[in-house]
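Deliverable D5.2: sample structural annotation.
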Amino acid sequence: MGVSLGTGPHTWPGGPEDAWQPVDCTAAVPPAAVAEVLETGLEESVHIVRRSRVSQGRPVAAELLYVPQSSAPELPGIDAPSGAARARAVLRELQRLELDRQENAVELGSAGADDAKELDRLPGAPVLVVTTRFVAAGRVAALSVATYRADTCRLTFGDAGGVEIHAGPQRQAS
């Protein structure tokens, strides 16, 4: 399993090759830092899609995908499905937009209570946090904050300058 952070082809979340599984979707006001990146009002509700990634039967990553209402305008309000079905509906709406580019950042962090529970780790366990801004029509159309278990991932750098996160067996230092 790998997540390319290089300059390869850009794709929307939820595409046919996407290894993430939709878990849930709610409409809520995001944290202020997220609202600032999305350029939404501080009290404006966005779609928050929760997805997970599993490898060899164990959780390796948890993602929160923040999608402004304007990026999914055709999503029916009152008759919209809930849970994973609603998450898939929001992802389908993103596919309708033309993706200009995506911008990635990787940081080291420690698992908060929610991420720790979802990743089967103790709070404070080391994690890699990959933040991806998806840009369409010159504005941020979605923001992904994906938290990867550090004990199942490693960063590798290739000749092309890309960065990938691979899940696999741990290597012991000798």
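Annotation notes: The domain at 2-167 is CATH 3.40.1410.10 (Chorismate lyase). DSSP finds three helices and nine strands in the chain.
The annotation will be released with the project's public dataset once the embargo ends.
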